[in-house]
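Aim 2 progress update. The chain analyzed this quarter is reproduced below.
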Amino acid sequence: MDYHKRLDIAEMFQEPPEYKPPGTAEQLACSVDYPNLNSQQYRMTRKPSPNILHPCLEHAARNANGQVILAGSDYMGRRWGSSFFGWENIDDVLNDAKISFKRQCRYCITAMQFTKDPNLFVIGTDKGSVELWSTRNEARGEGYSLYLVDGQSEHIEGVSAMDLIEGGESKLVTGSHDGCLKVWNYAADLHSVKTMTMAHTDAITGLSTNRADDSMFASSSLDHSALMWDLRKPRPASSLFEGHKFGFTTVYWTTKEEANQVVALGDEAGNVHFIDIRQPDVPTHSVKVFNKKIHKISFNGTQFVVLGDTNQARFYDENLALLHECTPATNYLRDVLWETGETKEKSTCWLVGWDTFIHKVEY
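Predicted structure tokens:
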């Protein structure tokens, strides 16, 4: 090789002095002399993101004071993102004049929940981060003052599930698409205190803590297994339901008042299974709810609602009898907020879904 004839790559790709492309978007659009400036034209013509609640509502949260947060995602743009808006109470939701706070995010929110402190909430994102947000602080004066308390990016893949750990300590547990579980403390700042790297061999789809024991929680995964965890043990995981024909998509650990502390599992085939933790791998009851995968199971007393990848919601009692079903939306239903203090004669909830959908259901 003749090194005297080698090319100076940096000089070759240096912008020549006579290179003067159009300086405005209008001039660039009319120019045929510079055909390879697509990215430059996009940057010139791209409009700033509007501060709106994105239409694919995925998550809803309400604290002890009745304040409500809705999180929506934008799946239509060139770059996916999310936004969350807050209101003082659920009757004000979607009223632009009564918005308490709002925020645009350059990531998709995959989990959201209020903490025991009504002014703090936690979100998980598709970039693997967990963020602790505050809605107000006495040091900042009266009224709402939204700010990020702390954020940590410790999951390699996106956060796919999250739940608070009940008890005296301020802890929560998160799971990700790579099968990793993390336990966090959010008392002063946000930091992980325990990591289970290979908790599952596929994406973790659901987490639910035992509200009677702050050391125990259940996890579900697409690896066709559900596990029960006890953080006091050297080997904390034990089988809850393994070897199932379908992947599990959600989990809910009931209280003694709701269903005697059984664990409800939803799968990809649209079934809901109930497991007694004293006799794992053998469902006490199973019910076929949808022909598509289960998205969420939520209890209100002895009654519960099941949402799937459909626009329908189905409500059941403790005997798995169908109490009510409705199809109020034209697109997916994603979350539910129950009205507290309801009697057995009347139940009320709010269903949240895509196309900026929120609807009150009474039955």
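The CA atoms of residues 179 and 201 lie 6 Å apart. The longest strand covers residues 56-62. These observations will guide the mutagenesis experiments scheduled for the next reporting period.
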